[in-house]
Amino acid sequence: MIETYLLRGIAEIDRCGSFTAAAKALHVSQPALSRAMQKLEGELGAALFDRTAGRTVLAPLGRLAAEHARLVLSALDGLSAAVREADRAARVFRYGSVAPMPVWVLAPLLARALPGKTVESRLADADAPLVAALEEGTLDAAVLLRPPAGGGWQSKAFLRERLGVLLSPVHPLARRKTLRFADLAGETFVLFGDSGFWIPLCRRKIPRAEFLAQGTTEAARHIVANSDLPGFYSDQAARLGPYPGNRVKIPFRDPEATATYHFVCRADRAGTLAQVFDALPSP
Amino acid sequence: MIETYLLRGIAEIDRCGSFTAAAKALHVSQPALSRAMQKLEGELGAALFDRTAGRTVLAPLGRLAAEHARLVLSALDGLSAAVREADRAARVFRYGSVAPMPVWVLAPLLARALPGKTVESRLADADAPLVAALEEGTLDAAVLLRPPAGGGWQSKAFLRERLGVLLSPVHPLARRKTLRFADLAGETFVLFGDSGFWIPLCRRKIPRAEFLAQGTTEAARHIVANSDLPGFYSDQAARLGPYPGNRVKIPFRDPEATATYHFVCRADRAGTLAQVFDALPSP
DNA sequence: TCGGATTACGTGCACCGTAATGATC
DNA sequence: GATCATTACGGTGCACGTAATCCGA
Q1: Residues on chain B touching A79 (C-beta within 8 angstroms)
Q2: Is residue B67 domain-shared with residue B142, that is, in the same domain?
Q3: Under a CB-based contact definition with an 8 Å cutoff, are residues B236 and B252 in contact?
Q4: Are residues B268 and B152 in the same domain?
Q5: Structural domain tally of chain B?
Q6: Does B151 share its domain with B164?
Q7: Does one domain contain both A149 and A136?
Q8: CB of A54 lies under 7 Å from some atom of strand C
Q9: How far is the CA of B117 from the C1' of D24 (A)?
Q10: How far is the CA of B35 from the C1' of C12 (A)?
Q11: Using 50, 70 and 90 to split pLDDT, how confident is the model at A244?
Q12: Which residues of B touch A46 (CB under 8 A)?
């Protein structure tokens, strides 16, 4: 019977060029590898090595065998990878979101709709990378700004969020009822952690703006509390706790400042996620 | 380390449907197989079997693993097959011929040009199957009536053979200098062993003819010697020994009765056969 | 003489089979 | 109780490592 250690042996000898080097790489003794290769030759009924010279070297037949051995071993790796991946997929639900707020909304909902599963989420700053991840199966679902183009998708809008700015009461614009992004040109903003697509959106819409990204929400709150620097808020963010008291909240009236979040999965996964779609609220 | 006996185990369990049946099929005890599958689960770090019911059965993950196991095992079979085939190809030279005479001509020539190789030949009754065998690599070379159409071939004409008929001196046509196939309509012929393409050719060209195929040349000679039945000969066949004395030899004048034999191999094999091509005579 | 492969030899692990136990119908 | 899988328990083969030998440069 050709066992895998024989294949690892010949593949490694082909890679390293000698028994000695291969034995070292495989963490076995040289004699063990030598015997293994003799056994492999016996199993195959053919000479794989050229032993005429001082340095025993792979014969053409041996190189052919090594090539096939690599194929077998990569198929074996494929088995391990496939099983581990399927096992993981059975235990955890992975989705991505273009913004943090939908994650807060979905967390309790998914925990109820997917009992026994671990939920993992990741943030992205645009739809495109999440769609790519859905296509290649890296993600089970995603929260996007708009459903992907083309067929093969299931999606449902479930949340709307409107961005606004936090201004110090002494700021010249603090009395306005609404603002446009462009009104805040040249300002420096404090950012509360990762905000997904909102950050590139603001960079694009607010000319000459600067952004102070803070690693923790605490750091951001501290800076806001001890300065006049503006920050961002959203109408949905009340769920996360109270905002600093020393700011006025003014919503943006640009259409881009209002996001509609869509929960999206591949159509071929819709069956197992039917419960999730049913549990989603309306925006 | 995932060894192949583990893969054979799960593949067989998937095929047979139970540990008991699979263990029987693999010629191992049931406990041995049970332990092997526990080890496989340990190696993969995942449960492959559903042990809740009385009959331990493959879980979905186990079926996935079994599927991949079959892939690995077939890759392993591919290794054995490839090595054995390459080993054989290095030792033996295989060619086919549409007629027996070229084989007699080539035998000593190939023995000289391919030292250390065993030469195997087989007969066919038309070009087509030999061309197919050349294409798929089952044959190293072939003797054909005409070079194959299309590119990718190396060929050289090296022998011409003309068929004739052996008639009893008392046959009405025995005085003719030449004959046409059609002149012998309705006759019954004795055949000397396998004659390749000549047999279907004669069936096609001689209306209502019957053929008595003999297993051995001896049997055919015996029938010829003790009857007036006609047979076939060729101008090249003198090499094989004398013909029966009680017959006259009359060549056919139909153009089909003269065959030109071409030695053919795939262009990508021409390099290793250069010696053979050089040694071939002119027709 | 030295680097590298093979042979010799004793050891230990891992897999095996038989037998007993457990679990489910 | 019957059937099938698992656990328990010795036994053994096989691959291992160390050490000795062989073989070309």
Answers
A1: 2, 7, 65, 68-69, 71-72
A2: no
A3: no
A4: yes
A5: 3
A6: no
A7: yes
A8: yes
A9: 30
A10: 20
A11: low
A12: 83-84, 86-87
Average per-residue pLDDT for chain B: 91
Give tens-digit pLDDT for B134-162.
Answer: 999 999 999 999 999 999 999 999 999 99
- Report the residue of chain A nearest B90, measured CA to CA: A61
Contact B46 A71 (CB under 8 A): no
Cβ separation of A4 and B1 shorter than 8 Å? Answer: yes
Decide if B230 contacts B167 (C-beta within 8 A).
Answer: yes
> Domain containing A128 — which CATH number?
3.40.190
Is there a contact between A44 and B80 if contact means CB atoms under 8 Å apart?
yes
d(CA A139, nearest CA chain B) in Å: 19
Tens digit of pLDDT for each residue in A41-51?
Answer: 999 999 999 98
CATH number of the CATH domain containing A40: 1.10.10.10
Query: Do the Cβ atoms of B201 and B162 come closer than 8 Å?
Result: no
Please tell me which of the candidates A44, A61, A83 has its beta carbon nearest to residue B65.
A83
- Do B192 and B60 share a structural domain? no
* CATH assignment at residue A202: 3.40.190.10
Is there a single domain that holds both residue A74 and residue A96?
no
Q: Is B79 in contact with A72 (Cβ distance < 8 A)?
A: yes
Q: How far is CA B229 from CA A150, A159, B168, in A?
A: 80, 99, 7
* Residue A251 sits in the same domain as residue A165: yes
Collect all residues with Cβ–Cβ distance below 8 Å to A241 and sequence separation of at least 6: none
pLDDT in tens, B31-42: 999 999 999 999
Instruction: pLDDT band for B184, please (50, 70, 90 cuts).
Output: very high
Domain that residue A100 falls in = 92-156+264-279
Judge contact between A142 and A133, C-beta under 8 A. yes
Please check whether residue B203 is in contact with residue B277, taking contact to mean a CB–CB distance below 8 angstroms. Answer: no
Packing angle of the helix pair B30-44, A60-91 (nearest 10 deg): 80
Measured in whole angstroms, the distance separating CA B20 from the mean position of its chain's CA atoms is 42
Which residues on B lie below 8 Å from A84 (Cβ)? 44-46
